[in-house]
Specification:
Length: 137
């Protein structure tokens, strides 16, 4: 799966978050579905804008082995993002939860996946992969 692991985990998170919101909030109307999609997409947009310094620099890329090790731990990032989305669904009583839950849940997912990648980097370094901490721009 390689570099597609982030996308795969994100897809699982977004699908589960939609199901969670539908369970806690009821069936959404069309506007709420659009709010949900916007919230989910904006998480990637916001974080990529920060990491690429306003879209002026390429996104950093880890070695595929490091990425594979790190993203094999995706269960933690998916469940972390889903837990945050669930907490928002419990705390926010406004319709804006349809945009907030996927946005914040996906941001947490992406941040936790970064931690998982750092763990993968450390594991690869310990196994003797001297280039594990190399990051390509």
């Amino acid at each position: 799966m390689g570099r597609e692991s982030t996308t795969f985990g994100f897809s699982i998170l977004v699908t589960a978050t939609f199901g969670l919101l539908q369970t806690t909030e009821g069936a959404p109307d069309v506007a709420r579905v659009f709010w949900f999609a916007t919230g989910a997409v904006m998480s990637f947009t916001a974080l990529e804008a920060v990491l690429s310094r306003g879209f002026r620099r390429p996104m950093p890329q880890h070695d595929t082995r490091v990425t594979a090790i790190g993203t094999s731990l995706n269960l933690l990032s998916v469940l972390g993002g889903l837990a945050v989305a669930w907490l928002l669904a419990e705390w926010v009583t406004h319709a804006s939860v349809w945009a907030l839950a996927p946005f914040v849940g996906a941001c947490v997912y992406l941040l936790l996946e970064s931690v998982e990648t750092a763990v993968g980097e450390r594991m690869a370094l310990r196994s003797g992969d001297e280039g594990a901490d190399d990051v390509e721009p």
